[in-house]
Amino acid sequence: MSTRQSFDLQLMDLQQHILRMASLVERAIYDAVESLTRQDTVLAQKVIDSDDAIDEFLNDIEHTIIKIIATQQPIARDLRVAITGLKIIISLERMADFAVDIAKITLRLAGEKLIKPLVKINEMARLAQQMVKEGLDAYVQSDVTKARRMCGYDDDVDYYFHEVFEELIVFMKNEPRCIEQASHLLLVCRYLERIADYATNIGEEVVYLITGSMEDMN
To answer: 41, 48 in Cβ contact below 8 A?
Structure first.
């Protein structure tokens, strides 16, 4: 096996590790919102417990990338592959942290009747999850068009964020006894909005990987 073939295999293996980490993060986001919607404290605790495995992936992949850069000294696109991988796992880890934050709110609200249906929050979550999935698809397929299109969904997430924000502010003014729960739901919206922002970061990294140019798509 040539040195080039060996290096290509290392990069393919790196991408597979990133996708396995991404799979855990996507699951954590889905389960966190499900736990809140169903007020399922067991599922919420599962999300919190799963964060250790995601952190282990982060550390292992980060170590692999540093080793690749140190031993192979990649240049041009090969270097961008390594740097992009590093930035993507950092974005994924931050998303997982927000999923844990949502799960912790589920635990805090355990036993309380929700003050409103979570329809728009669920829609924010669905869009954020779709952005993560499509961002990773764009990464695997080296698809700039898909990456840019995915980033466009961030405007929809922001729209729902402001809608729910306004609703909850009105709710707190009219029902002071609900201020604490409404504040927690505001945080959930904020966490989902930030997850969408980090998905956009992945899209920007895909564009950088393919074109070599940085674009601000947030």
So the answer is: no
**Residue indicated by tokens 């899209």:** 203
The C-alpha R_g of the chain, in whole angstroms, comes to 19
What is the mean pLDDT of the segment spanning 30-48?
Answer: 97
> What is residue 109's DSSP assignment?
T
Q: Model pTM?
A: 0.94
Place of tokens 């992009």: 84
* 11-15-18-20 Cα dihedral, nearest 10 degrees: -130
3-211 folds as: Methane Monooxygenase Hydroxylase; Chain G, domain 1 (1.20.58)
Q: Are 99 and 36 in contact (CB under 8 A)?
A: no
C-alpha distances in Å from residue 36, one per residue of 158, 183, 194: 20, 14, 18
Summarize pLDDT for 81-108 with one digit per residue, the tens. 999 999 999 999 999 999 999 999 999 9
